[in-house]
Predict the structure of Glutamate-1-semialdehyde 2,1-aminomutase.
Amino acid sequence: AVPEMRRNMQYTESERLFEASKKCIPGGVNSPVRAYQAVHRTPVFVERASGSHIYDVDGNAYIDYVCSWGPCILGHAYLRVIKAVQAACENGLTYGAPTGKELKLAELIRSCIPSMEVSRLVSSGTEATMSAIRVARGFTGRDKVVKFRGCYHGHSDGLLVKAGSGALTQSVPDSKGVPADYTKNTLVAEYNQPDSVQKLFETQGKEIAAIIVEPVAANMGVVLPEPGFLEFLRKITEDYGALLIFDEVITGFRLGIGGAQGYFHVTPDLTTLGKIIGGGMPVGAYGGRKEIMDMVAPVGPVYQAGTLSGNPIATTAGIETLTILKETPEIYTQIEASARTLAEGMRGHFGESVCVNQIGSLMSIFFTAQKVKDYETATSSDISRYADYFNYMLDHQIYLAPSQFEAMFVSAAHTAEDIAQTCEVLRGYGR
Ligand code: PLP
Protein backbone atom coordinates (compact mmCIF):
# COMPACT_ATOMS: atom_id res chain seq x y z
CA ALA A 1 0.00 0.00 0.00
CA VAL A 2 1.02 3.61 -0.50
CA PRO A 3 2.46 5.00 2.74
CA GLU A 4 -0.06 6.76 4.91
CA MET A 5 0.32 10.52 4.86
CA ARG A 6 1.53 11.88 8.20
CA ARG A 7 1.16 15.41 9.39
CA ASN A 8 4.05 17.22 11.06
CA MET A 9 6.71 14.66 10.28
CA GLN A 10 9.36 14.38 12.98
CA TYR A 11 13.00 13.65 12.28
CA THR A 12 14.36 13.67 15.86
CA GLU A 13 15.95 10.20 15.80
CA SER A 14 17.66 10.95 12.45
CA GLU A 15 18.95 14.20 13.96
CA ARG A 16 20.30 12.38 17.03
CA LEU A 17 22.03 9.70 14.93
CA PHE A 18 23.49 12.32 12.59
CA GLU A 19 24.99 14.36 15.44
CA ALA A 20 26.53 11.20 16.93
CA SER A 21 27.74 9.93 13.52
CA LYS A 22 29.49 13.21 12.76
CA LYS A 23 31.78 12.50 15.71
CA CYS A 24 33.10 9.22 14.35
CA ILE A 25 32.39 9.14 10.58
CA PRO A 26 33.54 11.96 8.23
CA GLY A 27 30.53 14.27 7.91
CA GLY A 28 28.47 11.52 9.52
CA VAL A 29 28.24 9.55 6.27
CA ASN A 30 30.11 6.92 4.30
CA SER A 31 29.55 8.63 0.92
CA PRO A 32 29.40 12.45 0.66
CA VAL A 33 26.08 13.00 -1.13
CA ARG A 34 24.27 11.26 1.74
CA ALA A 35 25.04 14.21 4.03
CA TYR A 36 22.31 16.32 2.33
CA GLN A 37 24.62 19.36 2.15
CA ALA A 38 23.14 20.49 -1.16
CA VAL A 39 19.63 20.49 0.30
CA HIS A 40 20.59 22.01 3.65
CA ARG A 41 19.03 19.59 6.08
CA THR A 42 19.72 16.56 8.26
CA PRO A 43 19.79 13.35 6.27
CA VAL A 44 17.12 10.78 6.85
CA PHE A 45 18.54 7.68 8.55
CA VAL A 46 17.00 4.57 7.10
CA GLU A 47 15.73 1.66 9.14
CA ARG A 48 14.42 -0.63 6.45
CA ALA A 49 12.99 -0.78 2.95
CA SER A 50 10.48 -2.91 1.14
CA GLY A 51 9.27 -2.76 -2.46
CA SER A 52 9.03 0.89 -3.51
CA HIS A 53 9.08 2.17 0.06
CA ILE A 54 11.78 3.21 2.45
CA TYR A 55 11.22 3.70 6.20
CA ASP A 56 13.28 5.97 8.42
CA VAL A 57 14.24 5.63 12.08
CA ASP A 58 11.47 8.05 13.11
CA GLY A 59 8.80 5.83 11.61
CA ASN A 60 8.25 7.95 8.47
CA ALA A 61 7.54 6.10 5.23
CA TYR A 62 8.53 7.37 1.78
CA ILE A 63 8.11 6.40 -1.84
CA ASP A 64 11.74 5.88 -2.84
CA TYR A 65 13.10 7.23 -6.13
CA VAL A 66 16.76 6.82 -5.20
CA CYS A 67 16.65 3.02 -5.18
CA SER A 68 20.11 2.94 -3.57
CA TRP A 69 21.35 5.03 -6.53
CA GLY A 70 20.28 2.44 -9.07
CA PRO A 71 20.77 -1.16 -7.95
CA CYS A 72 17.22 -1.77 -6.68
CA ILE A 73 15.53 -2.12 -10.07
CA LEU A 74 13.22 -4.82 -8.70
CA GLY A 75 12.42 -2.78 -5.61
CA HIS A 76 13.74 -3.32 -2.11
CA ALA A 77 13.98 -6.71 -0.42
CA TYR A 78 12.71 -8.62 -3.44
CA LEU A 79 11.75 -11.95 -1.93
CA ARG A 80 13.33 -14.29 -4.47
CA VAL A 81 16.66 -12.48 -4.25
CA ILE A 82 16.56 -12.37 -0.44
CA LYS A 83 15.79 -16.08 -0.22
CA ALA A 84 18.62 -16.99 -2.59
CA VAL A 85 21.03 -14.84 -0.57
CA GLN A 86 19.87 -16.37 2.71
CA ALA A 87 20.41 -19.86 1.31
CA ALA A 88 23.87 -18.91 -0.01
CA CYS A 89 24.90 -17.53 3.40
CA GLU A 90 24.44 -20.95 4.98
CA ASN A 91 27.31 -22.19 2.83
CA GLY A 92 29.85 -19.61 3.98
CA LEU A 93 30.31 -15.96 3.18
CA THR A 94 33.55 -16.08 1.20
CA TYR A 95 36.14 -18.61 0.05
CA GLY A 96 38.66 -16.69 -2.05
CA ALA A 97 38.49 -19.55 -4.54
CA PRO A 98 36.66 -19.96 -7.84
CA THR A 99 33.00 -21.04 -7.85
CA GLY A 100 30.48 -22.18 -10.45
CA LYS A 101 28.42 -19.11 -9.57
CA GLU A 102 31.04 -16.79 -11.03
CA LEU A 103 30.91 -18.74 -14.28
CA LYS A 104 27.12 -18.50 -14.23
CA LEU A 105 27.17 -14.72 -13.73
CA ALA A 106 29.80 -14.23 -16.46
CA GLU A 107 27.69 -16.32 -18.85
CA LEU A 108 24.55 -14.41 -17.93
CA ILE A 109 26.29 -11.09 -18.54
CA ARG A 110 27.61 -12.27 -21.89
CA SER A 111 24.20 -13.60 -22.95
CA CYS A 112 22.67 -10.15 -22.38
CA ILE A 113 25.63 -7.99 -23.46
CA PRO A 114 27.45 -9.95 -26.18
CA SER A 115 30.35 -7.47 -26.37
CA MET A 116 31.33 -8.65 -22.87
CA GLU A 117 32.67 -11.90 -24.23
CA VAL A 118 35.07 -12.20 -21.29
CA SER A 119 34.47 -10.36 -18.01
CA ARG A 120 36.05 -10.03 -14.60
CA LEU A 121 34.12 -9.41 -11.38
CA VAL A 122 35.24 -6.74 -8.92
CA SER A 123 33.52 -5.23 -5.88
CA SER A 124 32.49 -1.73 -7.03
CA GLY A 125 31.93 0.45 -10.06
CA THR A 126 35.05 2.42 -9.17
CA GLU A 127 37.18 -0.71 -9.41
CA ALA A 128 35.52 -1.67 -12.69
CA THR A 129 36.34 1.62 -14.47
CA MET A 130 39.82 1.85 -12.96
CA SER A 131 40.59 -1.68 -14.16
CA ALA A 132 39.05 -1.19 -17.61
CA ILE A 133 41.30 1.81 -18.15
CA ARG A 134 44.33 -0.15 -17.03
CA VAL A 135 43.46 -2.85 -19.56
CA ALA A 136 42.92 -0.27 -22.33
CA ARG A 137 46.34 1.22 -21.60
CA GLY A 138 47.96 -2.20 -21.48
CA PHE A 139 46.32 -3.27 -24.73
CA THR A 140 47.10 -0.13 -26.73
CA GLY A 141 50.45 0.69 -25.12
CA ARG A 142 49.23 4.31 -24.76
CA ASP A 143 48.71 6.41 -21.64
CA LYS A 144 46.08 9.07 -22.32
CA VAL A 145 42.38 8.71 -21.63
CA VAL A 146 39.54 10.99 -22.69
CA LYS A 147 36.68 11.54 -20.29
CA PHE A 148 33.78 13.98 -20.39
CA ARG A 149 33.15 16.90 -18.10
CA GLY A 150 30.29 16.01 -15.76
CA CYS A 151 30.63 12.25 -16.27
CA TYR A 152 31.49 10.32 -13.11
CA HIS A 153 33.35 7.04 -13.18
CA GLY A 154 34.04 6.46 -9.50
CA HIS A 155 36.68 7.97 -7.28
CA SER A 156 39.95 6.54 -8.57
CA ASP A 157 42.67 9.21 -8.71
CA GLY A 158 43.06 9.49 -12.47
CA LEU A 159 39.32 9.83 -13.09
CA LEU A 160 38.56 12.41 -10.44
CA VAL A 161 38.84 15.22 -12.92
CA LYS A 162 35.81 17.33 -13.73
CA ALA A 163 33.69 14.58 -12.22
CA GLY A 164 29.96 14.81 -11.81
CA SER A 165 27.74 13.46 -9.02
CA GLY A 166 28.66 14.41 -5.44
CA ALA A 167 31.75 16.20 -6.73
CA LEU A 168 29.52 18.77 -8.43
CA THR A 169 27.54 19.89 -5.39
CA GLN A 170 30.40 19.34 -2.94
CA SER A 171 32.31 22.03 -4.86
CA VAL A 172 35.40 19.83 -5.05
CA PRO A 173 35.40 18.81 -8.71
CA ASP A 174 39.10 18.18 -8.44
CA SER A 175 39.93 16.42 -5.19
CA LYS A 176 42.79 17.36 -2.93
CA GLY A 177 45.14 14.48 -2.38
CA VAL A 178 45.41 13.62 -6.08
CA PRO A 179 48.90 14.46 -7.36
CA ALA A 180 48.87 16.39 -10.64
CA ASP A 181 50.99 13.61 -12.11
CA TYR A 182 48.12 11.16 -11.67
CA THR A 183 45.72 13.18 -13.80
CA LYS A 184 48.08 14.52 -16.43
CA ASN A 185 47.00 11.72 -18.78
CA THR A 186 43.29 12.43 -18.34
CA LEU A 187 41.99 14.64 -21.14
CA VAL A 188 38.59 16.25 -20.67
CA ALA A 189 36.08 16.75 -23.49
CA GLU A 190 32.51 18.07 -23.54
CA TYR A 191 29.65 15.57 -23.56
CA ASN A 192 27.58 15.79 -26.76
CA GLN A 193 30.18 18.02 -28.42
CA PRO A 194 32.03 15.97 -31.06
CA ASP A 195 34.30 18.90 -31.91
CA SER A 196 35.84 18.86 -28.44
CA VAL A 197 36.74 15.19 -28.93
CA GLN A 198 37.95 15.71 -32.47
CA LYS A 199 40.38 18.41 -31.32
CA LEU A 200 41.94 16.13 -28.71
CA PHE A 201 42.39 13.34 -31.25
CA GLU A 202 43.81 15.65 -33.88
CA THR A 203 46.54 16.81 -31.51
CA GLN A 204 47.12 13.72 -29.34
CA GLY A 205 45.37 10.87 -31.16
CA LYS A 206 48.36 8.55 -31.22
CA GLU A 207 48.74 8.76 -27.44
CA ILE A 208 45.08 8.16 -26.57
CA ALA A 209 44.35 4.67 -25.21
CA ALA A 210 40.61 5.11 -24.77
CA ILE A 211 37.54 7.24 -24.45
CA ILE A 212 35.48 6.46 -21.36
CA VAL A 213 31.89 7.66 -21.45
CA GLU A 214 28.59 7.16 -19.69
CA PRO A 215 26.49 6.40 -22.81
CA VAL A 216 23.64 8.20 -21.05
CA ALA A 217 25.21 10.68 -18.67
CA ALA A 218 23.56 10.31 -15.29
CA ASN A 219 25.91 12.05 -12.90
CA MET A 220 25.21 15.64 -13.95
CA GLY A 221 21.55 14.79 -13.77
CA VAL A 222 20.35 12.65 -16.67
CA VAL A 223 21.62 13.90 -20.04
CA LEU A 224 20.81 11.89 -23.16
CA PRO A 225 23.33 11.43 -25.95
CA GLU A 226 22.34 13.45 -28.99
CA PRO A 227 21.66 11.39 -32.12
CA GLY A 228 24.97 10.35 -33.66
CA PHE A 229 27.15 11.23 -30.65
CA LEU A 230 27.86 7.65 -29.54
CA GLU A 231 28.35 6.59 -33.19
CA PHE A 232 30.86 9.41 -33.55
CA LEU A 233 32.81 8.17 -30.50
CA ARG A 234 32.79 4.66 -31.97
CA LYS A 235 34.16 5.89 -35.29
CA ILE A 236 36.86 8.23 -34.00
CA THR A 237 38.27 5.62 -31.61
CA GLU A 238 38.41 3.12 -34.46
CA ASP A 239 40.09 5.65 -36.74
CA TYR A 240 42.82 6.34 -34.21
CA GLY A 241 43.29 2.81 -32.83
CA ALA A 242 41.92 3.73 -29.40
CA LEU A 243 39.36 1.76 -27.41
CA LEU A 244 35.84 2.86 -26.59
CA ILE A 245 34.78 2.16 -23.00
CA PHE A 246 31.11 2.42 -22.10
CA ASP A 247 30.69 2.98 -18.39
CA GLU A 248 27.37 1.22 -17.94
CA VAL A 249 27.47 1.15 -14.15
CA ILE A 250 24.13 2.98 -14.18
CA THR A 251 22.72 2.11 -17.63
CA GLY A 252 23.65 -1.60 -17.57
CA PHE A 253 20.46 -3.69 -17.10
CA ARG A 254 18.64 -0.38 -16.48
CA LEU A 255 17.87 0.88 -20.00
CA GLY A 256 17.10 -2.65 -21.05
CA ILE A 257 18.56 -6.12 -20.72
CA GLY A 258 21.31 -5.17 -23.19
CA GLY A 259 22.16 -1.88 -21.46
CA ALA A 260 22.77 1.35 -23.35
CA GLN A 261 24.73 -0.48 -26.04
CA GLY A 262 21.69 -2.65 -26.78
CA TYR A 263 19.43 0.41 -26.67
CA PHE A 264 21.51 2.54 -29.04
CA HIS A 265 23.09 -0.28 -31.08
CA VAL A 266 26.61 1.03 -30.59
CA THR A 267 29.14 -1.56 -29.48
CA PRO A 268 32.07 -0.52 -27.30
CA ASP A 269 35.35 -2.40 -26.89
CA LEU A 270 35.10 -2.53 -23.11
CA THR A 271 32.13 -2.18 -20.77
CA THR A 272 31.96 -1.52 -17.05
CA LEU A 273 29.04 -2.62 -14.91
CA GLY A 274 28.02 -2.26 -11.27
CA LYS A 275 24.88 -1.48 -9.25
CA ILE A 276 22.16 -3.77 -10.74
CA ILE A 277 24.54 -6.69 -11.42
CA GLY A 278 25.07 -6.96 -7.67
CA GLY A 279 21.34 -6.97 -6.94
CA GLY A 280 22.07 -4.71 -3.94
CA MET A 281 25.38 -6.30 -2.96
CA PRO A 282 28.82 -4.80 -3.73
CA VAL A 283 29.66 -5.99 -7.26
CA GLY A 284 31.23 -4.45 -10.33
CA ALA A 285 32.45 -6.00 -13.58
CA TYR A 286 34.48 -5.07 -16.61
CA GLY A 287 34.78 -6.96 -19.83
CA GLY A 288 35.08 -7.00 -23.58
CA ARG A 289 36.48 -9.01 -26.47
CA LYS A 290 38.65 -11.97 -25.50
CA GLU A 291 41.60 -10.51 -27.37
CA ILE A 292 41.52 -7.43 -25.12
CA MET A 293 40.63 -9.19 -21.86
CA ASP A 294 43.50 -11.64 -22.44
CA MET A 295 45.67 -8.76 -21.23
CA VAL A 296 44.41 -9.37 -17.68
CA ALA A 297 46.44 -11.45 -15.20
CA PRO A 298 46.96 -14.36 -14.92
CA VAL A 299 46.72 -14.68 -18.74
CA GLY A 300 48.33 -11.34 -19.54
CA PRO A 301 50.55 -8.66 -18.01
CA VAL A 302 47.87 -6.29 -16.65
CA TYR A 303 47.53 -6.92 -12.92
CA GLN A 304 44.16 -6.75 -11.19
CA ALA A 305 42.93 -8.73 -8.18
CA GLY A 306 40.52 -8.74 -5.21
CA THR A 307 40.09 -10.70 -1.96
CA LEU A 308 36.30 -10.52 -2.21
CA SER A 309 36.00 -10.46 -6.02
CA GLY A 310 33.33 -12.93 -7.14
CA ASN A 311 32.09 -13.20 -3.55
CA PRO A 312 29.51 -16.00 -3.44
CA ILE A 313 26.79 -14.00 -1.68
CA ALA A 314 27.11 -10.97 -3.95
CA THR A 315 27.30 -13.23 -6.99
CA THR A 316 24.12 -15.00 -5.89
CA ALA A 317 22.24 -11.71 -5.58
CA GLY A 318 23.49 -10.72 -9.02
CA ILE A 319 22.55 -14.00 -10.70
CA GLU A 320 19.08 -13.94 -9.20
CA THR A 321 18.46 -10.31 -10.19
CA LEU A 322 19.68 -10.70 -13.77
CA THR A 323 17.75 -13.95 -14.18
CA ILE A 324 14.52 -12.26 -13.09
CA LEU A 325 15.15 -9.36 -15.47
CA LYS A 326 15.87 -11.74 -18.33
CA GLU A 327 12.78 -13.83 -17.62
CA THR A 328 10.51 -10.79 -17.30
CA PRO A 329 11.33 -8.32 -20.09
CA GLU A 330 8.00 -6.57 -19.52
CA ILE A 331 9.60 -5.01 -16.42
CA TYR A 332 11.37 -2.59 -18.75
CA THR A 333 8.13 -1.54 -20.45
CA GLN A 334 6.51 -1.03 -17.06
CA ILE A 335 9.28 1.06 -15.48
CA GLU A 336 9.63 3.19 -18.59
CA ALA A 337 5.86 3.87 -18.59
CA SER A 338 6.02 4.84 -14.90
CA ALA A 339 8.91 7.22 -15.57
CA ARG A 340 7.12 8.73 -18.55
CA THR A 341 4.03 9.41 -16.43
CA LEU A 342 6.21 11.13 -13.82
CA ALA A 343 8.03 13.16 -16.46
CA GLU A 344 4.74 14.28 -18.00
CA GLY A 345 3.45 15.17 -14.53
CA MET A 346 6.50 17.34 -13.93
CA ARG A 347 6.31 19.03 -17.30
CA GLY A 348 2.61 19.65 -16.79
CA HIS A 349 3.15 21.19 -13.38
CA PHE A 350 6.22 23.32 -14.01
CA GLY A 351 5.79 24.13 -17.69
CA GLU A 352 8.60 25.87 -19.56
CA SER A 353 10.54 26.82 -16.45
CA VAL A 354 12.07 23.34 -16.16
CA CYS A 355 13.72 20.77 -18.38
CA VAL A 356 12.80 17.14 -17.69
CA ASN A 357 15.10 14.56 -19.26
CA GLN A 358 13.87 10.97 -19.24
CA ILE A 359 14.97 7.76 -20.87
CA GLY A 360 13.71 4.37 -19.76
CA SER A 361 13.39 4.47 -15.98
CA LEU A 362 16.07 7.16 -15.59
CA MET A 363 15.12 10.80 -15.28
CA SER A 364 16.00 14.25 -13.94
CA ILE A 365 14.29 17.56 -13.54
CA PHE A 366 16.45 20.64 -14.12
CA PHE A 367 15.30 24.05 -12.96
CA THR A 368 16.31 25.82 -16.11
CA ALA A 369 14.44 26.93 -19.21
CA GLN A 370 17.35 25.70 -21.36
CA LYS A 371 17.39 22.31 -23.05
CA VAL A 372 19.88 20.33 -20.97
CA LYS A 373 22.28 18.53 -23.30
CA ASP A 374 25.74 18.97 -21.79
CA TYR A 375 27.60 20.05 -18.67
CA GLU A 376 27.08 23.75 -19.24
CA THR A 377 23.32 23.51 -19.67
CA ALA A 378 23.06 21.00 -16.78
CA THR A 379 24.82 23.40 -14.45
CA SER A 380 22.54 26.26 -15.56
CA SER A 381 19.93 24.66 -13.28
CA ASP A 382 18.95 26.71 -10.24
CA ILE A 383 20.14 24.41 -7.45
CA SER A 384 18.42 26.42 -4.74
CA ARG A 385 15.10 25.76 -6.49
CA TYR A 386 16.00 22.07 -6.62
CA ALA A 387 16.74 22.13 -2.88
CA ASP A 388 13.37 23.75 -2.17
CA TYR A 389 11.58 21.20 -4.34
CA PHE A 390 13.48 18.32 -2.72
CA ASN A 391 12.59 19.52 0.78
CA TYR A 392 8.91 19.85 -0.07
CA MET A 393 8.81 16.38 -1.60
CA LEU A 394 10.64 14.77 1.35
CA ASP A 395 8.28 16.42 3.82
CA HIS A 396 5.46 14.88 1.78
CA GLN A 397 7.01 11.42 1.85
CA ILE A 398 8.61 11.38 -1.58
CA TYR A 399 12.27 10.42 -1.29
CA LEU A 400 14.36 11.95 -4.11
CA ALA A 401 18.09 12.30 -4.64
CA PRO A 402 19.37 15.08 -2.37
CA SER A 403 21.22 16.70 -5.26
CA GLN A 404 20.33 18.20 -8.61
CA PHE A 405 23.08 16.26 -10.30
CA GLU A 406 21.81 12.74 -9.68
CA ALA A 407 19.24 10.61 -11.45
CA MET A 408 15.76 9.70 -10.31
CA PHE A 409 15.27 5.93 -10.53
CA VAL A 410 12.00 4.06 -10.93
CA SER A 411 11.76 0.39 -9.96
CA ALA A 412 9.47 -2.47 -10.92
CA ALA A 413 7.97 -2.24 -7.43
CA HIS A 414 6.57 1.25 -8.04
CA THR A 415 2.84 0.77 -8.54
CA ALA A 416 0.45 2.96 -10.51
CA GLU A 417 -0.78 4.10 -7.08
CA ASP A 418 2.75 5.17 -6.08
CA ILE A 419 3.15 7.13 -9.29
CA ALA A 420 -0.29 8.75 -8.90
CA GLN A 421 0.48 9.75 -5.31
CA THR A 422 3.82 11.22 -6.36
CA CYS A 423 2.10 13.30 -9.08
CA GLU A 424 -0.51 14.43 -6.56
CA VAL A 425 2.16 15.63 -4.12
CA LEU A 426 3.92 17.38 -6.99
CA ARG A 427 0.76 19.23 -7.94
CA GLY A 428 0.61 20.67 -4.40
CA TYR A 429 4.15 22.09 -4.64
CA GLY A 430 4.35 25.85 -4.94
CA ARG A 431 0.63 26.27 -4.34
N1 PLP B 1 30.43 4.82 -12.96
C1 PLP B 1 29.23 5.40 -12.93
C2 PLP B 1 28.56 5.78 -14.21
C3 PLP B 1 28.60 5.65 -11.70
O1 PLP B 1 27.40 6.24 -11.67
C4 PLP B 1 29.26 5.25 -10.50
C5 PLP B 1 28.64 5.50 -9.20
O2 PLP B 1 27.63 6.10 -9.04
C6 PLP B 1 30.52 4.64 -10.61
C7 PLP B 1 31.06 4.43 -11.84
C8 PLP B 1 31.24 4.22 -9.38
O3 PLP B 1 30.61 3.11 -8.80
P1 PLP B 1 30.78 2.77 -7.26
O4 PLP B 1 30.10 3.86 -6.50
O5 PLP B 1 30.14 1.44 -7.12
O6 PLP B 1 32.24 2.72 -6.98
About this structure: The chain has two domains: 12-77+330-428, 79-327. Confidence is low (pLDDT under 50) at residues 169-173. Residues 358 and 364 are 7 Å apart (CA to CA).
